[in-house]
């Protein structure tokens, strides 16, 4: 056996146990005769004969005082003792490198086997499904970074795909995401029972640049909403003689809903026919109960537009906010309450304004999607396949059927 004393700089070796760029650093310190190093030396030595690092996340010195907390430290020590060669036979630099590889692989394996796996049940079950999956993914990713366990990596990929599937519908358009967030918020506060959501496309006479015809917009909305159980399309606004003010649109839909409820409270013979009112939720057509209130769902930009001279009349604001109410979706860092405070009229109806913070932001917007379509860029997974097919079929947004 060689009695050569090897200093740390001379015998430091680097290798990748998985054949990728994830490197373990093994350092054999000086004053230890490497030919005489055995398991007990590694486990019991007081002067750190061996130190190794895994991506700077897991650091174990001397194998007796781990920086990372193990679920089962005793099992780790036992596994390490079984897996590591009882004696490291080192007679050359090649053997030193091989011994280091074998040693580190054994330690990594022992660590992986003694570390608990993250399970979905570990995550707070009170969280909504999507939030729970996101938390789960974060835990799995950390486990993968620390252990390089292939099973963890597979689980990360599976959860990522699941999150994509769950968020796909919510990423179709900003307004659909806002409706979902608003409903969750109102239900969470026990403020009211949300029975449905209505999307009302503006009339062609609105005059917005690049506004498609109501026929195309309504058909794309039908395709986008076909799988929604509670969000409906109303084309009433599109079929008027011209542009209709927002307060009148709100009043019309609220009057129609309450008319249905009132007729349901009467005898069956007097019930109003509503076969043509496809935007009304099915469970509302035949139910009885108190009046329904329509609220306007909007972003902070629309709320602030109330201060734009000539854009809204006092009657508009008084009716929209006072009689119907607002649900304002805002992002972290915005301060809509300050804007409300600075407006005497909005402060008057402050109790009828619900502020909802969008914590998980979504950068998808109709403007960006239209731009991508004009540039022949893919919008797959951002829109329903049937909507994309319709756009290409009719050559909308400067696209061609491909």
From TrEMBL:
<dbReference type="InterPro" id="IPR005248">
    <property type="entry name" value="NadD/NMNAT"/>
</dbReference>
<keyword id="KW-0548">Nucleotidyltransferase</keyword>
<comment type="subunit">
    <text>Homotetramer.</text>
</comment>
<comment type="pathway">
    <text>Cofactor biosynthesis; NAD(+) biosynthesis; NAD(+) from nicotinamide D-ribonucleotide: step 1/1.</text>
</comment>
<dbReference type="Pfam" id="PF01467">
    <property type="entry name" value="CTP_transf_like"/>
</dbReference>
<keyword id="KW-0520">NAD</keyword>
<dbReference type="InterPro" id="IPR014729">
    <property type="entry name" value="Rossmann-like_a/b/a_fold"/>
</dbReference>
<dbReference type="InterPro" id="IPR004821">
    <property type="entry name" value="Cyt_trans-like"/>
</dbReference>
<dbReference type="GO" id="GO:0005759">
    <property type="term" value="C:mitochondrial matrix"/>
</dbReference>
<keyword id="KW-0547">Nucleotide-binding</keyword>
<keyword id="KW-0808">Transferase</keyword>
<keyword id="KW-0067">ATP-binding</keyword>
<dbReference type="InterPro" id="IPR051182">
    <property type="entry name" value="Euk_NMN_adenylyltrnsfrase"/>
</dbReference>
<comment type="function">
    <text>Catalyzes the formation of NAD(+) from nicotinamide mononucleotide (NMN) and ATP. Can also use the deamidated form; nicotinic acid mononucleotide (NaMN) as substrate with the same efficiency. Can use triazofurin monophosphate (TrMP) as substrate. Can also use GTP and ITP as nucleotide donors. Also catalyzes the reverse reaction, i.e. the pyrophosphorolytic cleavage of NAD(+). For the pyrophosphorolytic activity, can use NAD(+), NADH, NaAD, nicotinic acid adenine dinucleotide phosphate (NHD), nicotinamide guanine dinucleotide (NGD) as substrates.</text>
</comment>
<dbReference type="GO" id="GO:0000309">
    <property type="term" value="F:nicotinamide-nucleotide adenylyltransferase activity"/>
</dbReference>
<dbReference type="GO" id="GO:0009435">
    <property type="term" value="P:NAD+ biosynthetic process"/>
</dbReference>
<dbReference type="GO" id="GO:0005524">
    <property type="term" value="F:ATP binding"/>
</dbReference>
<feature type="domain" description="Cytidyltransferase-like">
    <location>
        <begin position="189"/>
        <end position="371"/>
    </location>
</feature>
<keyword id="KW-0496">Mitochondrion</keyword>
<protein>
    <recommendedName>
        <fullName>Nicotinamide-nucleotide adenylyltransferase</fullName>
        <ecNumber>2.7.7.1</ecNumber>
        <ecNumber>2.7.7.18</ecNumber>
    </recommendedName>
</protein>
<dbReference type="GO" id="GO:0004515">
    <property type="term" value="F:nicotinate-nucleotide adenylyltransferase activity"/>
</dbReference>
<comment type="similarity">
    <text>Belongs to the eukaryotic NMN adenylyltransferase family.</text>
</comment>
<keyword id="KW-0662">Pyridine nucleotide biosynthesis</keyword>
